[in-house]
Task: inverse folding
């Protein structure tokens, strides 16, 4: 191991942080950019829009299980909320259909 890599490894072991920068603008960090969909993120936007178009909940559920939030961890809570809303909607539809059939 050369000298540069050994000092970097020592810095990480000592608990020093490494700055995450943006390739386009080195002054911006990873979380300084606003989220898409009017700043609230795809997950929360899908949750709100899902009350009018429930298929948006299922779209966000696919993104959640596809690990879309690895691109930006701030998306995780909104995508999880949409997945829960999709689950509740599915259960409500199944109960409604069961009541109507039987």
Result:
């Amino acid at each position: 191991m050369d000298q540069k890599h050994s000092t970097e490894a020592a810095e990480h072991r000592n608990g020093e942080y490494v700055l995450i920068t943006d390739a386009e603008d080195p002054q911006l960090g990873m979380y300084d950019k606003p989220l898409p969909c009017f700043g609230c993120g795809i997950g929360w936007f899908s949750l709100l829009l899902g009350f009018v178009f429930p298929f948006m909940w299922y779209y966000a559920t696919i993104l959640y299980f596809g690990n879309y939030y690895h691109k930006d961890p701030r998306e995780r809570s909104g995508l999880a909320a949409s997945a829960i809303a999709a689950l509740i909607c599915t259960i409500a539809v199944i109960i409604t259909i069961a009541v109507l059939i039987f």
In short: The radius of gyration is 21 Å. The chain has a mean pLDDT of 80. The first helix runs from residue 3 to 13.
